Amino acid sequence: MSLADRQTTTDIMMIRPVAFAGNLQTQASNSFQQLDANSGDAANQAQAAREFDGLAAALDKAGVTVHVFNDTPEPHTPDSIFPNNWVSFHADGTVVLYPMLAENRRLERRMDLLEELSGKRGFHTTRVIDLTRHEHAGRYLEGTGSLVLDRIHRVAYACVSPRTDLDVLGDFAQQLDYDIVAFEALDAAGGAIYHTNVLMSVGERFAAVCFTAIRADEREGVMNQLRGSGRAVIDLSREQMNAFAGNMLEVGSSLTGSAVAMSQSAHDALTAEQRAILESSAGPIVSAPIPTIEKLGGGSVRCMLAELHLPKKKRL
């Protein structure tokens, strides 16, 4: 398997929050968010920071190299803890910047982090593909929230939603030479599921998907594409999806080769048989409780992890 074909990486970027809060600008399109009158108070920020630190420590203990950057107090970016929506990194040195629906989420894009990655952190960047111009036309594609990538076979899975536009999908596919498997997916109330990565995860040898959420006449096509790639397929229930079981990520590990990162709520929602499939396919499960982040942010562990697939600079 060539460098360009690897599904996982041991290097992960995470953004430690300084003013985490429930984001009113994202609530309309994210049914997983649960906001209340105290959604932006200091106690929630303190708890979110503790949850963040617990997850980062669990990943580090599991052999994952976590590159932690601190958010800045200004401008206020309540969702900065979810960096995978504004940027993705690729093994040929490509960095992609994405158009985002909420105006305050666009402020999360930080060029200083990219500069540090290619400077002190020792990664090599060859080009930056900037898709953010689509924001001017009201078209969005929110990184590896909107896209679940099969990097080995260069297939991008995407459920269409207010945050995932077909035209931008086409632009991404053309510039990065990916095939697209697009479909519709609905929550129990009949609304579009905002991000693909809450209903599916694709690892090197497994895929976990809530097929019930996918439009009935499109399920078989998604299933066949995944099974055709040789992966073991885990069918998640709606209840498991709502507990963020679809929002898991296979990561590389210096200790075990690979591992599966997820929240404690996701872990507890899976059956023993499903956990066994994951462990046999991808290694140990690494979980941490992040209830405040899940409730107010409407996202979970996968959303917090930006995979640093960039090549490393050669040391002299």
Written overview of the protein:
By secondary structure, this protein is an alpha/beta fold. The protein has a single domain, classed as L-arginine/glycine Amidinotransferase, Chain A (5-stranded Propeller), CATH 3.75.10.10. 28% of the residues lie in helices and 21% in strands. The chain has helices at residues 42-61, 103-106, 111-117, 143-146, 166-176, 216-228, 238-242, 264-269, 272-282, 291-297, and strands at residues 11-16, 65-70, 87-89, 94-97, 127-130, 148-150, 155-159, 179-183, 200-202, 206-209, 232-235, 249-253, 257-263, 285-288, 306-307. The chain has a 3-stranded mixed sheet with strand order 2-1-15, with helices on one face. β3 and β4 form a beta hairpin. The chain is globular. The model has no long low-confidence stretch (mean pLDDT 93).
Helix percent reads: 25-40%
Largest sheet: 3 strands, mixed
Please count the helical segments.
Answer: 10
CATH level-1 class: Alpha Beta
Rg over CA atoms, rounded to whole Å, is: 18 Å
How many strands? 15
CATH superfamily membership: L-arginine/glycine Amidinotransferase, Chain A
Strand order of the largest sheet: 2-1-15
N-C termini distance: 26 Å
Our estimate of the beta-strand percent is 15-25%
The rough form would be described as globular
